[in-house]
What does this fold into?
Amino acid sequence: MGPRGSSMASTTRRVGTEGSATRALILDTAEAVIREEGYAAASTRRVATRAGLKPSLVHYYFPTTDDLLLAVNLKGAEASARAIDAALAADDPVRALWLMHADSARNALAYEFIALANHRKNLRAVIAEHSERMRARQVEVLSRLFGDRLAAEGLTPAGLSVVLAGIGRVLATEDALGITAGHDDARAFVEHWLERLAQNQGTKV
Amino acid sequence: MGPRGSSMASTTRRVGTEGSATRALILDTAEAVIREEGYAAASTRRVATRAGLKPSLVHYYFPTTDDLLLAVNLKGAEASARAIDAALAADDPVRALWLMHADSARNALAYEFIALANHRKNLRAVIAEHSERMRARQVEVLSRLFGDRLAAEGLTPAGLSVVLAGIGRVLATEDALGITAGHDDARAFVEHWLERLAQNQGTKV
Amino acid sequence: MGPRGSSMASTTRRVGTEGSATRALILDTAEAVIREEGYAAASTRRVATRAGLKPSLVHYYFPTTDDLLLAVNLKGAEASARAIDAALAADDPVRALWLMHADSARNALAYEFIALANHRKNLRAVIAEHSERMRARQVEVLSRLFGDRLAAEGLTPAGLSVVLAGIGRVLATEDALGITAGHDDARAFVEHWLERLAQNQGTKV
Amino acid sequence: MGPRGSSMASTTRRVGTEGSATRALILDTAEAVIREEGYAAASTRRVATRAGLKPSLVHYYFPTTDDLLLAVNLKGAEASARAIDAALAADDPVRALWLMHADSARNALAYEFIALANHRKNLRAVIAEHSERMRARQVEVLSRLFGDRLAAEGLTPAGLSVVLAGIGRVLATEDALGITAGHDDARAFVEHWLERLAQNQGTKV
DNA sequence: AATGAATGAGATTTCATTCAT
DNA sequence: CATGAATGAAATCTCATTCAT
It folds into this structure.
């Protein structure tokens, strides 16, 4: 990905007003680029061109490419957190959670950040922490929903979260590649199983 | 990611003796680089340096970077095919298949190629085809093992393959990032469930 | 000076044939640029433009700016070594040594490399070593010329080398800036003193 | 060295109260940066960051980088002038002058400005003038101390100043690089010689 | 079968400077 | 007094690829 200084990415450093419209535009554009072309394509130039800005301006707001990537990651994490909280408030919380995991737009982004974390030691810790926080948040929600009742299925809230994440992600990523064999079957299986679970579920809080 | 020519990948063009030791060395090195640093790092130079060869020589065997990447992908696909066939011959075929899906080294490579396919239209078709072939091969194996008996669980061979792939992949990728919450629970759940399935299984062919 | 990776400069790495005419041209041009505009001006672009080459070609021969700078330094050190050896063979060796130290072209280059060493940890060791080798070579020459006879003046070969280097350098650098006050006086003083020394000198070897 | 506007340095233009604490902070920080990392590192940004200020503020006080550099140079010249005056008032003035010339902190800064003058025509005249003034001031002091008595040694006040400057500078710069061969010998030689001179010296004024 | 030379493109980053508030 | 925004230029480096030998 070109030369990259070895200095730690400064998660906190943030040039430009937080509420700046330009900053938001850059962030949105970068997210779109990452989703469509991968994190490696989120170069200053490409993002700037697409946003109709000068490359230098991108650097003004995000001194380092890492800063930009982490900012997009953070934004995604915040969106996921909101989605989880919304699930808890939904009519059928478990199903809402499953839909979130099977959402391909969300998965495309998440996938990129995992790939990114895998290849850039600098960013690994921050990205991993975001993922862990999402897991924890889901555990909270699922615990509130099921109490101990998941144990009857041989599962735990954390285990359920892992299973849904895995199946959701493989469906989304394969869809993107045009691979579909077994998808409907797997989806039906999960949904059927979740329905059964839902009957076992405690009162919504 | 640096400049990448837009020329169609010449899947078939192949210079250099097929059985050449140099060719094998380049392929192995490229695979290691991809596994450790990601496909974006598999540049002619990097592979050459690491293999102790001149960059030009890499180009001699693989005229295009895409040629090299596809060759590594093909090699991985062949290894996966062998693993699936070996599973069929194992004592506990379903469990062997699950272990294959949960194998982190294999997943690391597979993950890279999915990311690659996602971001390079050129290669998408070839890589997707390899994945589909693997899925088909597993369906064959699982059908032979279970016949119709999976239906009782609300599943199909293809659906089961998808489920195992998803859960296996999420475990492997999160492990790599040091995320472990819920992993043991999910693993126990899958293994317990597979044991139950195995009792339902037909005679090994 | 722009981004600079933290990787150690690879003193030995050397792309392109040693005897290449292009390589020599780049080296000569870089030396001229450094002498005239300072080491900080020895950028790929500037050197390339001045040599009538493409910037990429400079990178082909000297992957890193540090590689280029060190190569120029090495070339200078070799020239100095030859000058010292030539002094030993001259009619009046001590005076020849003094003239070498007072040579402004040589000093301009030396000055740049000391400044460079001062500001780039990477290169410090190599450059310092070159300087030390020059000092050692002079000590050898002066010892051969004077034996113990310098002691009568309260000096040693190494001490004399330091004194000549210091006075020679200040004269050369100030000349370059147009500062001349006291220069003739200092020069006369040194030359008078060296004449006296020469009479004290042993037989030339 | 990055882009550097070609606008003449505005030696006189000076925004911000002369006595401003902020101005002094910027000046001190710039001096430290130059001393430690060289004049080329004294960029608006770097100085600002290190001083905990915004880059724009540095520009507010010093519209141009050249303005900043010259201000630091002036500050250094004033300090040297004070050191020379102090030498005259010292117990052993000649020795005090020598110690000033051998002072490595002072030399590090002086070295940078000579390099700077060498490479930026804009600034050459101003910096050279400062140096010349220091030389003149020393000549005054030495004349007062020795009258004509230096002639017996074949020297003049200006010549002595040059000699001390040269030897002092080479010792200081080589020390910084870890080169020490001959240093003690040269130092002993100079000090012994200065002692002899001192006995020849006139009454302190 | 292998390699040295050359080139154009692009990515990352740093910088000085201007302007409006 | 002070600052945020914006911009254009340049420096460093990496790459894929082509060509001639």
Notes: Residues 1-16 of chain A have pLDDT under 50 and may be disordered. The interface with chain C takes residues 3, 5-6 of chain A (CB under 8 Å). The CA atoms of residues 1 and 40 of chain A lie 7 Å apart. DSSP finds nine helices and no strands in chain A.
